[in-house]
Specification:
36% of the residues lie in helices and 30% in strands. It is α+β, with helices and mostly antiparallel strands. Helix 1 packs antiparallel against helix 2. The radius of gyration is 21 Å and the shape is elongated.
Length: 184
């Protein structure tokens, strides 16, 4: 049974570890990121339909048809953004041996879960959204990060600072994650 942890986070004890569910945060920055992530696919579909309308020889081209196409594309984009934002979830399963991160939209798992050996993880931290720091960070949200084999991995986009603090505290109860890399 999931219990509230902090803010939107829900958690439960599972075997020798914890399972935490992180729902998406609905705010201006997540709306912008979702819009930009979905734009290429929907633009391609709208462009294909516009080509069919323009070059279909059986029916004469009418500007009214193009207006309907663009209007329906914008409504579809808006509806898809709202559905994606309201149903996106990150599920974190953490025990002494394994950190597993799963993503889902509409309750359907998206891709394979990412799995990391707990003894290779170090420097678990909360990172704030800073668009002026680097052009690559422009579309990044507040998130959790950890390092593994000198690479940085991120999860929990849109997590709040108080939620991150509570999550880190629970994770440290299960397994004390070091600040520096393990000796090899």
């Amino acid at each position: 049974m999931l219990e509230p942890l902090s803010g939107r986070l829900k958690w439960e004890r599972k075997n020798n570890g914890i399972r935490v569910v992180i729902p998406a945060r609905i705010c201006a920055s997540t709306l912008r990121k979702t819009f930009i992530d979905m734009l290429p696919g929907l633009s391609g579909a709208a462009f294909g339909l516009a080509l069919v309308l323009v070059f279909d020889r059986r029916h004469p081209f009418r500007w009214h048809d193009l207006y309907i196409l663009i209007s329906s594309w914008l409504l579809t984009l808006g509806a898809a953004m709202i559905v994606k934002l309201c149903t996106t979830r990150t599920t974190l399963t953490f025990d002494k041996n394994l950190l597993e991160i799963k993503y889902s939209d509409l309750g359907i798992r998206r891709g394979d879960p990412r799995k990391y050996s707990t003894n290779q993880i170090y420097d678990l931290r909360f990172v704030e959204f800073t668009p002026e720091a680097d052009i690559r960070n422009d579309l990044r949200l507040d998130e959790m990060q950890f390092d593994r084999k000198w690479l940085t991995h991120a999860f929990g986009a849109g997590i709040g600072e108080d939620e991150a603090s509570a999550l880190i505290a629970r994770m440290m109860e299960v397994y004390p994650i070091p600040k520096s890399p393990p000796k090899e």
